[in-house]
Structure to design on (100 residues):
């Protein structure tokens, strides 16, 4: 099981605090020397509660070996027609793997 914390950040339009809640899915996996390497991705969208700026972001990370975070890319924030291309800054979440 994976637990991914919310990413806190600042709205690129008005400077208000924002949060993105991640819900990752496995997008690929393959066998390597120490077991299976899995790639996870979550693409989420939220609106700024202060100004309505639409924030769309993607998180990508890899698990290898099983139960270990191998790589976590920077969060990609995308401009949309409703966001005026403003840049929102989001912090990387904490990612924890554990067995049930």
């Amino acid at each position: 099981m994976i637990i991914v914390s919310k990413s806190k950040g600042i709205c690129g339009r008005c400077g208000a605090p924002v949060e993105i809640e991640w819900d990752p899915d496995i997008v690929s996996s393959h066998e390597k020397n120490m077991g299976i390497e899995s790639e996870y991705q979550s693409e989420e969208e939220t609106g700024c509660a202060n100004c309505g700026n639409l924030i769309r972001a993607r998180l990508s990370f890899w698990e290898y070996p099983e139960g270990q975070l191998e790589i976590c890319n920077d969060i990609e924030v995308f401009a949309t027609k409703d966001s005026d291309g403003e840049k929102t800054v989001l912090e990387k979440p904490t990612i924890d793997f554990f067995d049930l």
